[in-house]
Target: Olfactory receptor
Amino acid sequence: MRPENQSSVSQFLLLGLPIPPGQQGVFFTLFLGMYLTTVLGNLLIILLIRLDSRLHTPMYFFLSHLAFSDISLSSVTVPKMLMNMQTGQQSIPYVGCISQLYFFILFASVDNFLLAGMAYDRYVAICHPLRYITIMRNGLCMFLVAGSYMAACVHALFHTLLLVRLSFGAHNIITHFFCELTVLLKLSCSDISLNELVLFTEGGMLFFLPLSIVLGSYICIGTIILRVPSTKRLSKAFSTCGSHLSVVFLYYGTATGVYFFSSSWGSKDIIASVMYTVVTPMLNPFIYSLRNRDIKQALEMCVNRVKF
Model:
């Protein structure tokens, strides 16, 4: 191995989005607006749930934590991307890159686990309505949320520690707008077989296990509805599960496209990552507010209070 490959880098260079130089200002304004919409929209969801006692239910308890996780997920990547677009400086310190990676894995995993918890909540509400209060008690909800954060912390720390043992040498150009794990692994001049093994086994298990819970919950819900079909039951199931299903399709659809159907990181994969890290957190408040009657009523009540 050459001497320069045995040294470790002090910083990385983020190439960012494949945007023509003359359009940097337009895209900066666009992504700044999307980020502010994400933060303000999700903060509004959290505020409404805290202020309206009718929203103090398990489903909205999970939703408030999902909104917090979405704010955090966007805040890990978007501000740095905006700063790089505005200043033209593409460098990020090694420690900053590792920290960004850790928190990105953390909050992306929290989203994954919370969506599974919300799917189980909808399953109990529709398939076992008479036992809903007994099953989805406060203790269980707190346990599921706390377990989501703890599992996500361990998962993120595990992959971060496996990464910091690697050497990068003179290879420090990241063809992405944030420090993404698979891109960093390709830059390393060390043996990454252990990292890849853990990524595909432990990482795959923690991705597909919540996904299987989501799919299993909705298969059971669909079976119950189709067993005794009625317009009223279909309408109730759609109003109850429609928002969550929309978020599930957005989250798992874009995540699957990024991590399972990309052979090499090109412009299409970076655009899919934008959908996964920027667009989906921004759309969640709109999905839950436009499709959810309780959120609409809470918002109207809040607006009326302000007017009064």
Remarks:
- The chain has one domain: 11-307.
- The first strand starts at residue 11 and ends at 14.
- Residues 193-227 form the longest helix (35 residues).
- DSSP finds eleven helices and three strands in the chain.
